[in-house]
Design brief:
Blueprint lengths: L1 E6 L3 H15 L3 E5 L10 H5 L4 E5 L7 E5 L4 E5 L15 E6 L2 E7 L9 H20 L5 E6 L23 H9 L6 E2 L12 E2 L11 E2 L2 E5 L1 H4 L2 E6 L15 E5 L1
Parallel strand pairs: 1-2, 7-8
Antiparallel strand pairs: 1-14, 2-4, 3-4, 5-6, 6-7, 8-12, 9-12, 10-11, 13-14
The structure holds one DNA strand.
Length: 256
DNA sequence: ATGCCCTATGATATAGGA
């Protein structure tokens, strides 16, 4: 079973590349983030033609998440239960479903913007709610929260830690929310190394991709039953190349 | 090779991204 997470930075702008990638890689399940469209506007036809079912959640210009699966999705949940709002809105940042006995959540964790910004407190609160969701579901079946966490787990996961001093994505507070997920049974599935460049995201600016100025922020957080079935995990950095690429690469995990 | 920011929006600027 092949499961993927990919921040596509607009499914409308990316649908041709996403469909082409799905045709080659043929994952069983793919979690998407940053749809940047409404639920109704999700371009389902091209992926349905490839045999995928679609469960999407979006409200327009920002955010948006989806799960695509070849097999039926059951127990679909939109938003984290008790997900905190931002400026009065519960944003489309999480969707969960069970597929062939594996439960998967696609999440787009708030960015945080700056450490002093209200959005940073929201990010930490949101991650606390994620932990509560995992605890409440108390899954014994293979279970994973996958997506754009907007957190680099260690200093090795950013191209130059000095550049990120005083910034979001690398603080002890943010990293502590990842390790705290171990208290509810989740630990990271770390993709196999790519010659010292483990990144999943590269800014569009300043030739960041070509210069290796990346971050590893797209993560697979999984329970023991999921880990026991993992045979491989890897980052498809080839998909970051060329015109019309997302600024994030797909992260793939293989289960027996 | 990997190639000099991208996306969606009451759009001709702006906010957000990380």
């Amino acid at each position: 079973m092949r499961i993927v997470t990919w921040n596509v930075n607009s499914i409308g702008a990316r649908i041709d590349r996403v469909a082409a990638w799905l045709e080659v890689q043929r994952p069983d399940v793919i979690a998407l983030q940053e749809l940047k469209c409404t639920t109704q506007a999700f371009p389902s036809a091209p992926v349905e033609a490839l045999g995928y079912r679609v469960e999407a959640l979006g409200d327009g210009r920002w955010n948006g998440v989806a799960l695509l699966s070849k097999s039926p999705m059951t127990e679909v949940v939109r938003h984290l239960p008790q997900q905190p709002p931002y400026e009065g809105n519960v944003e489309p940042r999480a969707i969960g479903a069970t597929i062939d006995g594996v439960r998967v959540w696609s999440v787009y964790v708030p960015n945080g913007r700056e450490l002093e910004h209200e959005h940073f407190a929201y990010k930490l609160q949101w991650l606390g709610c994620l932990k509560q969701t995992v605890a409440a579901e108390a899954a014994t079946i293979p279970y994973a929260v996958i997506g754009d966490f907007n957190i680099a787990p260690t200093d090795d996961d950013v191209w130059d830690p000095a550049v990120f001093a005083g910034s979001t994505h690398v603080t002890p507070e943010e990293r502590a929310t990842l390790t705290a997920l171990a208290e509810v049974g989740l630990r990271e599935v770390v993709p196999r190394s790519l010659k010292g460049q483990p990144y999943t995201y590269w800014d569009y600016r300043q030739l960041a991709f070509q210069k290796g100025m990346g971050m590893r922020i797209d993560l697979i957080m999984a329970n023991r039953a999921f880990h026991e079935r993992v045979t491989d995990a890897w980052i498809d950095r080839e998909e970051r190349k060329g015109k019309g690429a997302s600024d994030h690469a797909p992260v793939v995990v293989e289960l027996s």
